[in-house]
Amino acid sequence: MSEADRDEMDVRRAVVLDYLAHGLSDDGRPQYAKSPAGYAVGIEDFQLYQVAFDEDERLTIGSEVVVEPPADRGVVTECHRVEYDDLSSGAQSELEYVVADLVEENEERFVDFYNDAQPITLRLHQLNLLPGIGKKLRNGILDERKRKPFESFDDLSERVSGLHDPDEILVDRILEELRDDDLKYQTFVGRREQEQNQ
After folding, report:
1. What CATH number labels 3-82?
2. Which of 2, 6, 121, 166 has the most CB atoms within 10 Å of its CB?
3. 91-196 — its CATH code?
4. Contacts made by residues 78-81, CB under 8 angstroms, sequence distance 24+
5. Where are the domains of the chain?
6. Residue 99 DSSP one-character state
7. What is the pTM of this model?
8. Per-residue model confidence as pLDDT tens digits over 114-131
9. What residue spans of the chain are helical by DSSP H?
């Protein structure tokens, strides 16, 4: 891996979920001392961030920003991770749409999840973590991918009987992982960090 590739892997990008031009409401400083703030979700691993923005930049919901490392940030001046419950109501309501867009825009990556999912234990498979996927659907997916890897969400829907909206199933699982921090298995949220720690 080249130095440029390694640097690119270390850059974490996020999508703005909420932009608060007048700063956070719980920030006790006077209005003139507050900088624009907001919330964002990581593109790669769906980590949630509270961010402060450069006052000279105007952002909109859906803008892409760099959150890590600090040296590569453009419009973000501060950033730290938060939980789902820490998000503003605006960010919470926007999250589902942004996650759905990210799954759609990165279709190959998420179709590969269906192609590459493995058993977690003798009784539990990664596919079973997805909402609505029981033994029958899991076996249908496994049988079909042995014949030939899936190429798209449409391909999955056509080849696996009973599997409707495979992209929406992934969105539901990602949102579940974001909302419930007590889940035993995290398949998508924080995945990049787990892989780097192995």
Report:
1. 2.40.50.140
2. 166
3. 1.10.150.280
4. 78/51, 78/52, 79/49, 79/50, 79/51, 79/52, 80/49, 80/50, 81/47, 81/48, 81/49, 81/50
5. 3-82, 91-196
6. H
7. 0.86
8. 999 999 998 899 999 999
9. 3-10, 89-105, 107-116, 135-147, 153-159, 166-179, 191-197
